[in-house]
Write a structure and sequence with these properties.
It is built from seven helices and twelve strands. By secondary structure, it is α/β, with parallel strands linked by helices. It has two domains: 132 residues, NAD(P)-binding Rossmann-like Domain (Rossmann fold, 3-Layer(aba) Sandwich); 111 residues, Rossmann fold (3-Layer(aba) Sandwich). A six-stranded parallel beta sheet has the order 3-2-1-4-5-12, sandwiched between helices. Strands 6-11-10-7-8-9 form a six-stranded parallel beta sheet. It binds NADP nicotinamide-adenine-dinucleotide phosphate. NADP nicotinamide-adenine-dinucleotide phosphate binds next to strand 2, helix 2 and helix 3. The site of NADP nicotinamide-adenine-dinucleotide phosphate has 25 residues, from strand 2, helix 2 and helix 3.
Length: 260
């Protein structure tokens, strides 16, 4: 059973780890190639875009892929949409692995916004010094805000326009609550901006903000495309793949997921 894992996340690496070396599974993980020194998953890896939904469809056909697991980041909406389009065209099963979003706790001062432009608008009402923790992509949405000062934290430097008043902090999580609290104090942060990425790796900033009663602008996730099955953990994905492999072989022995 040949599986393509669309990756770039901890969940994708965990799934590749669970599946690698398992008899009957031939796994290849795909990375976009954005990060200069990516954390590589176990097993075979390919790096770089496919050339849109059509390019992905052709790649899946040429490599005789039996199922696609979209374990990309919740904000990698284009890749998820391409995966849905390509697999629908080929009739290839598609599984999305989506970690749950974060949940507001008592004491939180969250401002939920639909997108990065909405986040930039929301800052007009908030303090001047902003901790921008949205990663490398999307920083340009804040480039027009000249009254604010930004601490921009990312693994690699952002490309494109950046706010005039900013400091860049290159760092890769996970971070502890203590580290995050120190950062908020050291840079006299008045507000945070984050995507609702979910997961524990980058959650500490939310706890630190709560403890300091700071407002957090939370950008909501793009919707998943229709079709495909959704699980929220790598173990759920692995169960799905194994169950499908065990219980539902087609007459030809090719992969068929549960319920199809
Ligand atoms: P995106 O906007 O959804 O995708 C843009 C293009 O990048 C896609 O059309 C595709 O190019 C290529 N691409 C994306 N993911 C790919 C993958 N796993 N393998 C091969 N090509 C891929 O994605 P993004 O937000 O730029 O994210 C890029 C990667 O970083 C993803 O793998 C994602 O899991 C990871 N990541 C993203 C975020 C975030 O906040 N967006 C955070 C952490 C990690 P083609 O059209 O040429 O195929």
């Amino acid at each position: 059973m040949k599986i393509l894992i669309l990756g770039g996340t901890r969940e994708a690496r965990e799934l590749a780890h669970l599946a690698s070396g398992e008899r009957g599974f031939d796994i290849v993980s795909s990375l976009a190639g954005r990060v200069r020194e990516p954390r590589l998953p176990d097993g075979a890896v390919r790096i770089g875009g496919f050339g849109g939904a059509d390019g992905l469809r052709d790649w899946l056909a040429a490599n005789e892929i039996d199922a696609v697991v979209d374990a990309t980041h919740p904000f990698a909406g284009t890749m998820s949409a391409h995966a849905a389009a390509a697999t629908t065209e080929l009739g290839t099963p598609l599984l999305h692995v989506r970690r749950p979003g974060w949940t507001e706790q008592p004491g939180d001062r969250w401002i939920r916004v639909p997108d990065l432009a909405g986040a930039a608008d929301a800052l007009a009402e908030l303090g001047e010094r902003v901790f921008l923790t949205i990663g490398r992509q999307g920083v340009a949405a804040f480039a027009g805000l000249h009254k604010h000062w930004f601490l921009i934290r990312a693994i690699d430097p952002p490309e494109g326009a950046v706010p005039t008043r900013h400091q860049l902090l290159l760092a890769r999580g996970p971070f502890t609550v203590e580290q995050e609290s120190e950062l908020l104090t050291e840079y006299r942060i008045a507000a945070l901006v984050t995507k609702d990425s979910g997961g524990s790796l980058t959650e500490a900033k939310l706890t630190a903000a709560r403890e300091s009663a700071l407002p957090v602008v939370v950008v909501e996730r793009p919707a998943l495309p229709p079709g495909g099955t959704v699980v929220d953990t790598p173990h759920g994905a692995w169960e799905w793949l194994r169950y499908a492999d065990r219980a539902n072989p087609t007459d030809s022995g090719r992969f068929r997921p549960p319920g199809r």
